[in-house]
Amino acid sequence: MTEIPRLDGLVPDALAPRTHRVFLRGYDVPIDIGFHDFEVGTPQRVLVTVEVLLDAAAFAATDEVAAAWNYDFLRTEIGRIARSRRFNLQETFVREVYASIAARHGVTGLRVSACKPDIYPDCEAVGVELSSF
After folding, report:
1. Does 118 have pLDDT greater than 70?
2. pTM, entire model
3. % of the chain exceeding 90 in pLDDT
């Protein structure tokens, strides 16, 4: 197999990446959440979106799996938190997800949002968001 030569110096300094981001968008996870009597004990659909800004060293610079920031962690950790207990508020759930991801190596910015898409027939969703940017 012939190795393809690497071409360096083609990206002007003005176009050098300034942001390194991984995300999970619209993860549909059932959560026992809500404070109304009809919500307690009845899991609801919650759509979770996470955007993680990484320092350049934590963003894969090669095509090696070992170099990648493991975004499988995002889905697994959100699911674990969602199943860990009952939540009265989306705010509490989002705070727990936020704290867990913010503690990871290489994270320089973070946005976590959650929304319930099945609350009002005339609204796409209702939700909350925490963000460092």
Report:
1. yes
2. 0.88
3. 71
**What is the number of other CB atoms lying within 10 angstroms of the CB of residue 51?**
18
Q: Residue 89 corresponds to which tokens in the numbers above? A: 């508020």
How far apart (Å, rounded) are the C-alpha atoms in residues 105 and 29? 25
Please give the structure tokens belonging to residue 46.
């919650």
Q: Which domains does the chain have, with CATH numbers?
A: 17-131 (3.30.1130.10)
For the chain, percent helix, then strand, then coil, each to nearest 5?
A: 25, 30, 45
The percent of residues in the chain predicted with pLDDT above 70, rounded, is: 95
Nearest to 118 by CA among 33, 24, 51: 33
Calculate the alpha carbon distances from 60 to 38, 67, 70 in Å. 46, 5, 10
Alpha helices (runs of H) in the chain, residue ranges in sequence order: 72-84, 90-102
Tokens 């059932």 belong to residue: 30
Among candidate residues 43, 131, 128, 125, the one with its CA nearest the CA of residue 93: 128
pLDDT at position 62 is: 83
